[in-house]
């Protein structure tokens, strides 16, 4: 995002992040520990409640400001991943929840009394093809009974609430596959141990992600968000915000790699001169810079459209694609610039390299974005 925008907000984020050195992140990464103190500090500063309207105790800022927050977090060498979900999962509740649900949860989420950090969509069999998910929620009187499996669901062990997408009408009985899915706000404190079993999966980076097994988990009917059967639309609604926010994190990562690599290229002496004096070292840094700046502009455009309530599907997808590509290219460049030190955990490049790799795959893979642009923007024939 444009560096001049939100200069004060940037400073606030930088101040919070300054309390969490790269050593702090290195240690969490080595032990695969949740950065509890960091998430608490982000919550206490109000930053994680940036998008929650003031009437519910949040900062009432736009998506462009939220982008600045996540960008600065990642730029500092930190990882917004353990904390970011609250920003977009909250939107489902805000836009589609009842007034009772909004009043009941949002002020507590804003104050940190409750964490809404988990978002359960992906399944082992369904994967990218979300409408094929088979986790079912069957209405029985004043509750729903949930059965099924989810995979790679992040932060469940550090969240009180989870937004869950489940099928309430069997796929054979709906006109369109996207119908018959519903969204629930599941209270994890009640569900875990009462039919919900969690098994953590170790992944490439320090991200608490889990396999979930639902066996007759009872969820009160009051946990349903919006109308039954409309869940897919609600989730899709939130995805533009998610993609733009993730793009901002990628921009932050890209800037981290470029700043570190530039510093290193100026200081590191080989053959009696700084390595950055060689154009073979300069050019990849300059190219990465140009690509990150361009992706930043698309992210800014997408956020501005979103904040004005205008259609932003194409821009949100392109921002995520370009920013994820730019940060990944910058990561590769940084490893190359650091040489052997790029592989050394003590220099943080390899940790951030692993972290930024995720964005080519999650929350949406590059291929699926290209397919969106081809089909919906360029009107090429539908592929699947
Ligand atoms: C660390 C981590 C954290 C995650 N956290 C969450 C979370 O909190 N909540 C959640 O719900 N999910 C989460 N996910 C899941 C993530 O969103 C999915 O992994 C991602 O959407 C891809 O789905 P998949 O793994 O099933 O891949 P698949 O659907 O199996 O796809 C595999 C590959 O095939 C490609 N592909 C598939 N179909 C096509 C096609 N028609 N054309 C071209 N290419 C195609 C895809 O692009 C992809 O590269 C997380 C994943 C990870 C790794």
Account of the protein in words:
It comes from uncultured Rubrobacteraceae bacterium. Belongs to the acyl-CoA dehydrogenase family. Pfam families: Acyl-CoA_dh_1, Acyl-CoA_dh_M, Acyl-CoA_dh_N. This is Acyl-CoA dehydrogenase. Helix 5 runs antiparallel to helix 8 and helix 10 runs antiparallel to helix 11. The strands form three sheets. A four-stranded mixed β-sheet has the order 1-4-5-8. A four-stranded antiparallel β-sheet has the order 2-3-7-6, with no helix packed on it. The mean pLDDT is 96. 47% of the residues are buried. The longest helix is centred in the middle third of the chain and has 37 residues. The protein is globular. The protein has three domains: 105 residues, Acyl-CoA dehydrogenase/oxidase, N-terminal domain (Butyryl-Coa Dehydrogenase, subunit A, domain 1), CATH 1.10.540.10; 112 residues, Butyryl-CoA Dehydrogenase, subunit A, domain 2, CATH 2.40.110; 145 residues, Butyryl-CoA Dehydrogenase, subunit A, domain 3 (Up-down Bundle), CATH 1.20.140. The chain contains twelve helices and ten strands. The structure holds flavin-adenine dinucleotide. Flavin-adenine dinucleotide (FAD) binds next to strand 1, strand 3 and helix 12. The site of flavin-adenine dinucleotide (FAD) has 22 residues, from strand 1, strand 3 and helix 12.
């Amino acid at each position: 995002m444009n560096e001049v925008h939100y200069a004060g907000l940037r400073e606030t984020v930088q101040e919070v992040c300054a309390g969490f050195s790269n050593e702090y992140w290195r240690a969490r990464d080595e032990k695969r520990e949740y950065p509890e103190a960091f998430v608490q500090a982000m919550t206490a500063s109000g930053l994680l409640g940036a998008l929650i309207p003031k009437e519910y105790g949040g900062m009432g800022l736009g998506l462009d400001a939220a982008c600045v927050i996540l960008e600065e977090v990642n730029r500092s060498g930190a990882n917004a991943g353990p904390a970011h979900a609250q920003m977009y999962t909250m939107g489902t509740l805000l836009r589609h929840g009842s007034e009772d649900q909004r009043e009941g949860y949002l002020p507590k989420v804003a104050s940190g009394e409750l964490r809404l950090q988990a978002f359960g969509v992906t399944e082992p069999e369904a994967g990218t093809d979300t409408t094929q998910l088979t986790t079912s929620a069957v209405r029985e009187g004043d509750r729903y009974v949930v059965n099924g499996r989810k995979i790679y669901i992040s932060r469940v062990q550090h969240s009180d609430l989870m937004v869950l997408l489940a099928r309430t009408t069997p796929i054979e009985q709906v006109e369109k596959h996207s119908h018959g899915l519903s969204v629930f706000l599941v209270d994890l404190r009640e569900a875990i141990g009462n039919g919900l079993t969690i098994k953590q999966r170790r992944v490439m980076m320090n991200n608490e992600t889990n396999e979930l097994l639902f066996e007759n988990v009872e969820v009160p009917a009051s946990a349903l968000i919006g109308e039954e059967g409309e869940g897919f639309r609600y989730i899709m609604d939130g995805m533009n915000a998610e993609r733009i926010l993730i793009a901002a994190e990628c921009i932050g990562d890209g800037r981290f790699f470029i700043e570190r690599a530039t510093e290193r290229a100026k200081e590191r002496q080989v053959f009696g001169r700084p390595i950055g004096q060689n154009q073979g070292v300069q050019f990849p840094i300059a190219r990465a810079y140009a690509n990150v700046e361009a992706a930043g502009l698309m992210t800014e455009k997408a956020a501005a459209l979103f904040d004005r309530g205008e259609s932003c599907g194409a821009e949100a997808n392109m921002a995520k694609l370009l920013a994820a590509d730019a940060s990944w290219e910058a990561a590769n460049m940084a490893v190359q610039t650091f040489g052997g030190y790029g592989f050394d955990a003590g220099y943080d490049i390899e940790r951030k390299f692993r972290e930024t790799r995720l964005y080519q795959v999650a929350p949406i893979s590059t291929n699926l974005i290209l397919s969106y642009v081809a089909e919906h923007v360029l009107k090429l024939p539908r592929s699947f």
